[in-house]
Amino acid sequence: MRNLTKAIGIGLLLVSSTMFGQNSSNYVSKVWVADQGDGTYKNPILYADYSDPDACRVGDDYYMTSSSFGCLPALQILHSKDLVNWTIIGAAVPHALPPVVSPERPEHGNRVWAPAIRHHDGEFYIFWGDPDQGAFMVKAKDPAGPWSEPVLVKEGKGIIDTCPLWDEDGKVYMVYAYAGSRAGLKSVITICELNADATKAITPGRIIFDGHEAHQTCEGPKFFKKDGYYYIFHPAGGVATGWQVVLRSKNVYGPYEEKIVMAQGDTDINGPHQGAWVDTPNGEDWFLHFQDVGAYGRIVHLQPMKWVNGWPVIGNDKNGDGCGEPVLRHKKPNVGKTYPIQTPQESDEFDGFTMSPQWQWHGNSNEMWAYFAGDKGFARLYSYPVLEDYKSLWDVPNLMLQKTPADNFTATMKLTFSPDKRYAGERTGLVVMGLDYAGLILENTTEGLVLSQVECKKADRGGTEVVNTTLPLIDNTIYLRVKFTDTGKKVGKGDGTDMIVMCDFSYSLNGKKFIPMGKSFQAREGKWIGAKVGTFCTRPFMKTNDGGWSDIDWFRITPNK
Fold first, then answer.
1. Alpha carbons 371 and 358: distance in angstroms, whole number
2. Given 52, 107, 258, 525, the catalytic residue
3. 463-478 pLDDT, tens per residue?
4. CATH number at residue 53
5. Mind listing the pLDDT tens digit for each residue in 3-16?
6. CA dist list (Å): 120 to 22, 154, 525
7. Phi and psi dihedrals of 2, rounded to 5?
8. Are 65 and 76 in contact (CB under 8 A)?
9. Rounded distance, CA 98 to CA 53, Å?
10. Mean pLDDT across the chain
11. Which of 2, 136, 400, 529 is the most exposed place for a label (fewest CB within 10 A)?
């Protein structure tokens, strides 16, 4: 185990120093740091949309992945030594999810749902459910990659949220749930047996738990075995309003006892559930889960956990009934030593030769979209033609976006736009993307280069992009900025998913004086993901053999002023 851990550590060092340019393992956010530097941490440990987190420990190292839906690279892999400080080390599916769709088109809300990451017999495995195809698996010797090509383990419409278990007798099982939107059934938990290689289901699934009466929308199961019991941790009650349930049985197929082990209680942490039980080498137990906060997606919390009479208790059990509630601040896990503060990467100087790991395309990626010129210090995005039936940026897969990293922050970028002057309609700029979107867009027109502040309401339903204000430009180098502000106000149900987040745009011609432009925009979540921020470069659908490009000098995340 020590040799494996050492080898993995060397691999991570090589990846961070050669693949991503800047030393990703040393990045510290300027807008959200969970480690308080005094032996405690604050929740959320990640104020970013790592939805449905799952994690495992190998030696002294922790590895986490999460739902990525239709965004690529998919299944981003995060690494930590203490469960509080995390950095991105790669992705299990770097380029395309099967089947590759042509023409290229985003698959909003589809593809990768609620993965599970496990380590068995020297290899890492990730299982996930694709609601339209079935259960997939990839594996790797090194969590930083390379990972194997996805294998369809069990075909079936509506199979989601899959998790394997290797039993002591050599048998392999997989637990999963169903998406009602595809299967016509939900709120049940199912188990099937896999072959020894965990590449194929060899038995039909058997429903082992029905949550319709007491635990509606039960899903996201995670499979464990401890002290002769099979344990299934699963959420219920819905993403924004649910609770954490644990099932246990001496028999893999049940019958299972049930118990609620964590709920919102008197806290402001709505819907605390769906996550990972991990332990430390010193014997402590911890639980990672998400909280749905609407526009910012599903952010990650870390809760203390303990075992009482054969049941886990997660969070703070104030009244001793075995059901805890989330904590906002706590002593850090005891992992034997103190590690440096680090956070997932955000700002990017584009000094690497591949895309830095915080970025994701909005669909299966295409090698012709971008050139990462690390020796020159920029990323060049080539204008790529939109689809013939293009309606708005909702239909564009070559949006290069990243998760929002905090409740309040500013994103600023410097770019130089070099459109092909033979054609009008090439566009680039800064965009905040969700079910609604807005941005600062540069476009070459028949009358020259213009900058516009645009927005599109109900983009997911075919909404039309409108221009709020526009101005002509002479210089093609410009600085674009958006300021995200959590107003502290809410509308609707008050469950956390209705927080009002406002975005204000500005631009500068010299990088010093920024001029407000357009209207304030209320950010909205995307399809099962939080709002994302980033850039793009497109041209109209037409038969040309080349186009222009946008050179992104840098993209920086800073505190609001």
1. 17
2. 52
3. 999 999 999 999 999 9
4. 2.115.10.20
5. 333 333 433 333 33
6. 32, 20, 36
7. -65, -40
8. yes
9. 22
10. 94
11. 2
- The CATH number given to whatever domain includes residue 459 is 2.60.120.200
- pLDDT tens column, 379-424: 999 999 999 999 999 999 999 999 999 999 999 999 999 999 899 9
Active-site residue, selected from the candidate residues 54, 104, 142, 219: 219
Phi, psi dihedral angles at 484 (to 5 degrees): -95, 130
Q: What is the pLDDT of residue 301?
A: 98
Let me know whether 312 and 452 are in one domain.
Answer: no
Same domain, 228 and 269: yes
Question: Tokens in use for 238?
Answer: 């819905």
Please count the CA atoms within 13 angstroms of the CA of 225 that sit on its side-chain side: 16
What is the C-alpha to C-alpha distance for residues 443 and 77, in angstroms, rounded to an integer?
36
R_g over Cα of the chain: 23
What burial class does residue 171 get, using C-beta atoms within 10 Å of its C-beta: 0-12 exposed, 13-18 middle, 19+ buried? middle
For 428-472, the DSSP string reads EEEEEESSSEEEEEEEEETTEEEEEEEEETTGGGTPPPEEEEEEE
Tell me what pLDDT residue 495 has. 65
Contact (CB, 8 A) for 530 and 291: no
Note the pLDDT of residue 496.
62
CB 207 within 8 A of CB 148: no
Cβ burial, residue 8 (10 Å; 0-12/13-18/19+): buried
Q: Convert the pLDDT of each residue in 211-233 to its tens digit.
A: 999 999 999 999 999 999 999 99
Confirm whether 99 is domain-assigned.
yes
When divided into structural domains, the chain yields a total of 2
Q: Is 52 an active-site residue?
A: yes
Q: What range does the domain containing 368 cover?
A: 360-558
Tell me the mean pLDDT in the region 306-319: 97
Task: State the Cα–Cα distance between residues 44 and 246, nearest whole angstrom.
Answer: 23
Token pair of 130 as six digits: 């694709």
Nearest Cα residue to 57 out of 74, 89, 80, 86? 80
